[in-house]
Protein: AtuA-like ferredoxin-fold domain-containing protein
Amino acid sequence: MLLREIAHARAGDKGNISNLSVIAFDPRHYPLLERHVTAERVKQHFAGIVQGEVVRHALPGLGALNFVLHDALAGGVTRSLALDAHGKTLSSALLSLEIPDA
Structure:
């Protein structure tokens, strides 16, 4: 299934760092997120975009995961020629990640 079937996402940025949060619609789905949405998978999903480290922070009380993507915005808002220099579309793109149904 696609991640968007069980979660929504939010994004933020600072300089050349994008910050993505994935939040389960239902707390019962949080264990699926925790098991299958790893920093490694997120880095692989954004191959060619994210040049630096991806760090994951688990927020079980919120049913969410937060990912910090370093060197992800082609230099950042004031330096990038990218159409989405803020990286807001990265949160939507992350929701196309495929994960097992169970």
Notes: The chain is about 20% helix and 25% strand. The mean pLDDT is 88.
